[in-house]
C-alpha cells in the first residue's frame, strides 16, 4: 500500500506558493499607493487630466474639460483642497423631427477631481476660466503672516 499515490501530498506546497504570491501582490499594491502623489485626493479612475504648477506667487491648476461649458463645471475650495467637478448631458437625435421623434438618445457624463494644495491660498482672489476645453484656475498664495504674536501661558 505504500506505493499508492496520496492525492493531498502537494496541497501544502501549493498553498504556500499561493500565499507567497498573494503577499507579493499586496506589497506591490501598497508600494503603488504609497508612491501615488500625496496631492491627489481623487477616488476612482478619471478620464480628466489635471496639472498643478507652482509659478512662484500662485498655483495654477489646468484641467482638460473638452465639451464642457463653464455652466457645466463646479469649483470648490475648502481649506487647502480644490475640488473640480463637471456634468453635462448629450442628446443625439436619430430620425424624426423635434415634436414627434421616433428615437432620441441621451447620455450624461460627469467627472470629479480633488487635489490638495501644497500651501494655503487666498480664496478671495482665485480666478478661473475655460478656453478651448481647458479649465485654468489661478490660486494666489496667501502672504506669510510675518507679524509676531504673543502667546499667553496658562
From TrEMBL:
InterPro entries: A-crystallin/Hsp20_dom (IPR002068), HSP20-like_chaperone (IPR008978), Small_HSP (IPR031107)
Family annotation (Pfam families): HSP20 (PF00011)
Species of provenance: Natrinema soli
SUPFAM superfamilies according to UniProt: HSP20-like chaperones
Domain SHSP: 41-154
Protein family: Belongs to the small heat shock protein (HSP20) family.
UniProt name for this protein: Hsp20/alpha crystallin family protein
Amino acid at each position: 500500500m505504500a506505493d499508492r499515490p496520496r492525492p493531498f501530498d502537494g496541497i501544502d506546497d501549493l498553498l504556500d506558493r499561493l500565499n507567497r504570491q498573494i503577499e507579493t501582490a499586496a506589497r506591490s499594491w501598497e508600494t503603488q499607493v504609497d508612491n501615488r502623489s500625496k496631492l491627489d485626493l481623487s477616488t476612482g479612475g478619471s478620464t480628466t487630466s489635471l496639472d498643478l504648477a507652482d509659478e512662484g506667487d500662485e498655483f495654477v491648476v489646468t484641467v482638460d474639460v473638452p465639451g464642457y461649458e463653464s455652466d457645466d463645471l463646479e469649483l470648490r475650495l475648502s481649506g487647502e483642497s480644490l475640488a473640480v467637478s463637471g456634468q453635462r448631458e448629450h442628446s443625439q437625435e436619430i430620425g424624426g423631427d423635434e415634436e414627434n421623434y421616433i428615437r432620441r438618445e441621451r447620455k450624461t457624463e460627469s467627472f470629479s477631481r480633488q487635489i490638495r494644495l501644497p500651501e494655503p491660498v487666498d480664496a478671495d482672489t482665485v480666478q478661473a476660466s475655460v478656453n478651448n476645453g481647458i479649465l485654468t484656475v489661478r490660486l494666489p498664495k496667501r502672504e506669510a503672516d510675518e507679524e509676531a504674536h504673543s502667546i499667553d501661558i496658562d
